[in-house]
Amino acid sequence: MIITQRTELRICTACGEPIADKYLFDIDGCAWHGSCLRCSVCLTLLERQPSCYFRDRQVYCRTDYIK
Ligand SMILES: [Zn+2]
Ligand SMILES: [Zn+2]
């Protein structure tokens, strides 16, 4: 997961809206709003987690990823 400073308008993978925030989350070339980066299983907000995991265009927290 990379937190990047926005240089171009990116579309959020989760909500499909353009990201106008100063920072966005970039995982494997896909972008998210910080507020949209939630585990697809338990819906935990991953913005403040030390790590998150990405598989098949779904985002997981560590707990759900290793299940
Ligand atoms: Zn979003
Ligand atoms: Zn989870």
TrEMBL record:
<keyword id="KW-0677">Repeat</keyword>
<dbReference type="Pfam" id="PF00412">
    <property type="entry name" value="LIM"/>
</dbReference>
<keyword id="KW-0238">DNA-binding</keyword>
<dbReference type="GO" id="GO:0000977">
    <property type="term" value="F:RNA polymerase II transcription regulatory region sequence-specific DNA binding"/>
</dbReference>
<dbReference type="GO" id="GO:0005634">
    <property type="term" value="C:nucleus"/>
</dbReference>
<keyword id="KW-0479">Metal-binding</keyword>
<protein>
    <recommendedName>
        <fullName>LIM zinc-binding domain-containing protein</fullName>
    </recommendedName>
</protein>
<keyword id="KW-0371">Homeobox</keyword>
<feature type="domain" description="LIM zinc-binding">
    <location>
        <begin position="10"/>
        <end position="67"/>
    </location>
</feature>
<dbReference type="GO" id="GO:0046872">
    <property type="term" value="F:metal ion binding"/>
</dbReference>
<keyword id="KW-0862">Zinc</keyword>
<dbReference type="InterPro" id="IPR050453">
    <property type="entry name" value="LIM_Homeobox_TF"/>
</dbReference>
<keyword id="KW-0539">Nucleus</keyword>
<dbReference type="GO" id="GO:0000981">
    <property type="term" value="F:DNA-binding transcription factor activity, RNA polymerase II-specific"/>
</dbReference>
<keyword id="KW-0440">LIM domain</keyword>
<dbReference type="InterPro" id="IPR001781">
    <property type="entry name" value="Znf_LIM"/>
</dbReference>
<dbReference type="GO" id="GO:0030182">
    <property type="term" value="P:neuron differentiation"/>
</dbReference>
